[in-house]
Structure formats: structure tokens, C-alpha cells
Design goal:
Number of strands: 11
Bound molecules: manganese (II) ion
Strand order of the largest sheet: 3-4-2-1-5-6-7-11-8
Largest sheet: 9 strands, mixed
Radius of gyration: 19 Å
Number of helices: 7
Strand content: 25-35%
Length: 242
């Protein structure tokens, strides 16, 4: 099995190496990752300037390339370079991607780009608490997820979130909650006004959602579909005269 790995934290992220180490149990691993951090860029693609990729020497000995583009660009470049791959893995992101995070996550976008280009994909993100992650507790779960999702009939795109101390694994749905788009004001060293955007959830997560699973110390696996069409509404709307 040929596995393409990307992320949105950049080519030197410790999470990228951890994911490559687990993935190498399952097949040949090649890394294509952004040459600098691209968190929260969502599914942006680069069309106004040319893309380049360069081989880098990585400590862990994996074949790796840095790309001057977004996470989605990296997967496109990687699949172009390889000709084909059997699986795209993205992560392990430094921080969870739960609920509405899926909309702006570069980690999930890299996986999505794999699916758009015809390859099954899994996004991995992990809760952070300020200290350097070791991934020791998470690696067996990552292996189990890859093993499970590469056998038989499986969803094409799965968003996986890992707690700091995993105690189990479960299927979840995306938590959809209302947020307050809090804007925090400040000043820079030159006295110029600046702003930070910080969204805070207003309601508690519902049971069996991705956010609920992480609160229970469970590894969350959410199958994601590519179609954004609201099928229930479309059916209702089709009963009406336009
Ligand atoms: Mn990130």
C-alpha cells in the first residue's frame, strides 16, 4: 500500500513524523507537507503563483518533500509526483479539529483533497495541553484506526480526534453548536490597534458527537461526506412550486 502523508502544521511538525511512523507499518510512506505552518487555511488552493516542491532530509528517514503551498496543494502535488496512492493521511494536527473546526481546518482539507482526487483519506488531530506531545498513548489507536478503515467497505473520508489519555474509540457525528464570535482587542508595540478572533461554544456538546467523545477520553471517528447539499431541505423544496 502506498500512503501519502500531509498536514497543516508544516514539514517539521512532530505530529507528522509520529503519523508517518505508525503508517509505515501498513505500507510505503511519502510525505508532502507545507514548508511553513498553514493552520486554519481551510481548503485554500494556490492559483495566482506557481507551486514548487523540494526533497528534504528528515531525521526519521522518510521520503519527504516540502511544498510552498497550502495543505490541499500538498496533497495535489504529492499525488501528481507519485502518480497514484492508496491512502492519504493528514496530521497529526497539534490541536483538535472538532465540530465547526472542520470548516476551517487545513488538516481536514488535506484529507478532503485526497478524496476529491479519488483517494480514501483520514485526518488525525490531537488535543494539546501546552507540553510537547509524545504520541505514545495515541499510536496504538492510530494503528487500529488505519487497520480498521483500510479493510472492506469503509467511508472515504474520516475525521479522527485523539484525546490526551485515550480510553477507547467510537464513531461520532460532528458537533454542531452555536458560537459567539468573540473579538478581543489589543495594541501592538507601536500602539496600533489589533484584534484577535476567538470563537467560544455557547452550548454543551450533544451525546455521541465528536466533542462529547473527546470529553469522555474516547478517540472520535467521524465519517465526513463531501456533498454539502441539504438533502432533507431539497426534498421539501422539490414539493413546492419554484
Ligand atoms: Mn494545524
Amino acid at each position: 500500500m502506498r500512503i501519502l502523508i500531509s498536514n497543516d502544521d508544516g514539514i517539521f511538525s512532530p505530529g507528522l513524523v509520529a503519523l508517518a511512523e505508525v503508517a509505515s507499518q501498513f505500507g510505503d510512506v511519502v510525505i508532502f507537507a507545507p514548508d511553513f505552518e498553514q493552520s486554519a487555511v481551510g481548503h485554500a488552493i494556490t492559483i495566482r503563483r506557481p507551486l514548487q516542491y523540494h526533497r528534504v532530509k528528515m531525521i526519521s528517514g522518510f521520503e519527504a518533500y516540502r511544498v510552498n503551498g497550502t495543505p490541499a496543494d500538498c496533497v495535489a502535488m504529492g499525488l501528481y509526483h507519485l502518480g497514484k496512492a492508496d491512502l492519504v493521511l493528514s496530521g497529526i494536527n497539534l490541536g483538535s479539529n472538532l465540530g465547526s473546526d472542520i470548516w476551517h481546518s487545513g488538516t481536514v482539507a488535506a484529507a478532503k483533497q485526497g478524496v476529491i482526487l479519488g483517494v480514501q483519506a483520514i485526518a488525525f488531530s490531537q488535543v494539546v495541553n501546552g507540553s510537547e506531545p509524545t504520541y505514545d498513548l495515541q499510536k496504538p489507536y492510530i494503528a487500529r484506526v488505519i487497520e480498521m478503515l483500510t479493510r472492506g467497505d469503509q467511508p472515504r473520508l474520516v475525521n479522527v480526534n485523539l484525546p490526551l489519555e485515550p480510553a477507547g474509540i467510537c464513531w461520532t457525528h460532528q458537533s454542531v453548536r452555536q458560537y459567539n464570535g468573540k473579538v478581543v482587542e489589543g495594541q501592538d508595540a507601536n500602539g496600533r490597534q489589533l484584534y484577535w478572533f476567538a470563537a467560544t461554544p455557547l452550548t454543551n456538546p450533544d451525546e455521541n458527537s465528536d466533542r462529547w467523545a473527546i470529553d469522555q477520553n474516547l478517540v472520535s471517528m467521524t465519517p465526513i461526506r463531501m456533498s454539502l447539499t441539504d438533502d432533507a431541505w431539497l426534498e421539501r423544496l422539490n414539493q413546492r412550486a419554484v
